[in-house]
Amino acid sequence: MVSGDPVRLAAVIRVGVLGARGRVGVEVCKAVDAADDMELVAAVDVGDSIEALSAAEVVVDFTHPDVVMDNLKWCVEHGVHPVVGTTGFDAGRLAAVRDLLAAHPGVNAVIAPNFGIAAVLMMHFAQQAARYFDSVEIVELHHPNKADAPSGTARRTAELVAEARRAAGLGAMPDATTSELPGARGADVDGVRVHGVRLAGLIAHQEVLLGGDGETLTIRHDTMSRSSFTPGVLLAVRRVRDRPGLTLGLEHLLDL
Ligand SMILES: NC(=O)C1=CN([C@@H]2O[C@H](COP(=O)(O)OP(=O)(O)OC[C@H]3O[C@@H](n4cnc5c(N)ncnc54)[C@H](OP(=O)(O)O)[C@@H]3O)[C@@H](O)[C@H]2O)C=CC1
Ligand SMILES: O=C(O)C1=N[C@H](C(=O)O)C[C@H](O)C1
Questions:
Q1: DSSP secondary structure string, the chain?
Q2: Average pLDDT of the segment spanning 210-238
Q3: Regarding beta strands 58-61 and 13-18, do their DSSP bridges make them parallel or antiparallel, or are they unpaired?
């Protein structure tokens, strides 16, 4: 939203949204439109010209893992800071993004597998708890229209848990399975088992199960509305211009 005051106009961030007609993109457009310090200058989806984003300083991407790398490249090469919620980032993709940013100093990016504050806390608590338990497994549960499995959030949680276990000197988890129907034990992400559920009626949920001697701890997060992602997205839009290079994860903007 923009007022006619020239001082305020100078402070207003010009924002573009990619995936603007998608489930999350619609919510992001509404939130940007309602923010006093932002102007929605382009809302782009399939069939629209990406050139419309040239008017933006910051572009928010909630599209699809298959197209997000091309979108990112376009933004960085056009001097626009990307804020990316789209998932599908493995180590290879992240390295490519770092190389791209290194070749374009002055352009920064925020990529976060989850912009929900409670989801980020769930990941943080799981990382903190991981070193105290023999076993950790992750169950992510999502709506059946989700393109990727496991979820970006589950993948990142597994990496954080694995890092914490390594730092604590913990070895492999106990598991005597010798006979297995493929998939029955989930996907192995950095040594952590991740199980995916796709169920009508759900939005996005995750449980981190931790087990030790005679007790277990379950950390659960539930997304009830996609509007929950927008405060985190707006925070990243406000901060991306001042954070050189790649910021991976909203936790870095939350003083965690
Ligand atoms: N980081 C976070 O906090 C969150 C991340 N996500 C992630 O965000 C992504 C999008 O999720 P969701 O909104 O549910 O998905 P949707 O499929 O509802 O929305 C994606 C939108 O992007 C459009 N699109 C596809 N390709 C392009 C392109 N090249 N240019 C512009 N628009 C394009 C799609 O069009 P069409 O349908 O015609 O293909 C669709 O309208 C997923 O990767 C999801 O995992 C989701 C929620 C939170
Ligand atoms: O596709 C979704 O819906 C979501 N995607 C993100 C992910 O893969 O982690 C974030 C949240 O889980 C919703």
A1: ---S-HHHHHHPEEEEEESTTSHHHHHHHHHHHH-TTEEEEEEE-TTS-GGGGGG-SEEEE-S-TTTHHHHHHHHHHTT-EEEE------HHHHHHHHHHHHTSTT--EEE-S---HHHHHHHHHHHHHGGG-SEEEEEEEE-TT---SS-HHHHHHHHHHHHHHHHTT--PPP----S--TTTT-EEETTEEEEEEE-TT--EEEEEEEE-SS-EEEEEEEE--GGGGHHHHHHHHHHGGGS-SEEESGGGGTT-
A2: 98
A3: parallel
For the chain, percent of residues with pLDDT exceeding 90:
95
Q: Return the residue whose CA atom lies nearest to atom 40 of ligand 1.
A: 22
* C-alpha distance from residue 47 to each of 20, 44, 84, 235 (Å): 11, 8, 20, 29
For 71-112, the pLDDT digits (tens) are 999 999 999 999 999 999 999 999 999 999 999 999 999 999
Note the pLDDT tens digit of each residue in 128-159: 999 999 999 999 999 999 999 999 999 999 99
Whether 146 is a known active-site residue: answer yes
Q: Which ligand is nearest to the CA of 64?
A: 1
155 is an annotated ligand-binding site residue: no
Residue 159 CA, ligand 2 centroid: distance in Å: 16
Ligand nearest to C-alpha 152: 2
